[in-house]
Design goal:
By secondary structure, the protein is an alpha/beta fold. The chain has twelve helices and seven strands. It has one domain: Alpha/Beta hydrolase fold, catalytic domain (Rossmann fold, 3-Layer(aba) Sandwich).
């Protein structure tokens, strides 16, 4: 395996409106974004879905790399991998959960051609910190180790029982992503970049880059307190009633409608 991140590309239907860089959440993968990436490609966007280090088919973490702050390494990896592939057209950054925190940091670093940032319940902590609670990290690692010890069908059955609204056509890639995930990163837990999310939103607002956050109402990361702060810093927020942290799966049609409206506002159809 090389040290290059795995990137899955969806080719746009018809004339290209722009490029969407999509970053999955922790222990997910480019494959878990495929249905939404295909939806956006059908609407004229080239979509580059990335496996961050330790995810999917990308390189693993070494003990040396984990001694530094993994969240910052993830951002550096993404910038290094994506820069040669961004061709000067309209650029949108999308990310879910921990991928949302990384996407926002990448967006604040790559302003050239950037026209918008779309975040699905990004993983931003309050009080603001770039460090994960150790008990949370160890619990997440134990859950992942359990998922990797059981079969694919058992993983699917467990997650379906927990999230009955998830589309069946996403379960195979979700299960494969769990099997491929590097447990050492989950156990470390520090996947949020050290640059405070409030600073990132401030920088994006100063650059006149629209930021739209989509969140839910059940077991979500973007709480009412997060929302108040984010709105005060210029972000727009849509709350999908009844959706969990996984809005894109709980309410796929609603999420696509919200995302399409945002994309049309930043890259109008010609």
């Amino acid at each position: 395996m090389t040290d290059e991140l795995h990137i899955e590309e969806q080719v746009p239907a018809g004339a290209r409106r722009g490029t969407i860089v999509a970053v999955p959440g922790l222990a997910e993968s480019a494959g878990t974004l495929r249905k939404t990436a295909q939806h956006w490609a059908e609407r004229g966007f080239r979509v580059l879905s990335v496996d961050p280090r330790g995810h999917g088919l990308s390189p693993r973490w070494t003990p040396e790399l984990l001694r530094n702050h993994p969240g910052d390494t993830i951002v550096d990896d993404l910038i290094r991998a994506l820069t040669p592939r961004l061709e000067g057209d309209s650029l949108i950054l999308f990310g879910h959960s921990a991928g949302g925190s990384a996407a926002a940091a990448v967006a604040a670093t790559l302003p050239s051609g950037l026209v918008g940032v779309l975040l699905e319940d990004p993983f931003w902590r309050l009080p603001i910190t770039s460090h994960q609670d150790r008990k949370v990290a160890m619990g997440a690692a134990a859950t992942l180790e359990h998922q990797q010890a059981i079969t694919d069908s058992e993983r699917r059955a467990e997650i379906t029982a927990r999230f009955p609204r998830w589309p069946m056509d996403e379960l195979a890639e979700w299960s494969l992503a769990k099997q491929r995930m590097d447990v050492s990163l989950v156990r470390n837990g520090d996947v949020i970049p050290t640059r405070a999310w409030t600073t990132l939103l401030t920088d994006l607002a100063r650059a006149s880059v629209p930021v739209h956050i989509v969140t839910g109402t059940i077991a979500i990361g973007i709480t009412p307190n997060h929302r108040a702060i984010a709105r005060s810093l210029g972000a727009d927020i849509t709350v999908v009633d009844g959706a969990t942290h996984f809005i894109r799966r709980d309410s796929r049609d609603d999420f696509h409608r919200i995302a399409d409206t945002f994309l049309e506002s930043v890259v109008p159809t010609v």
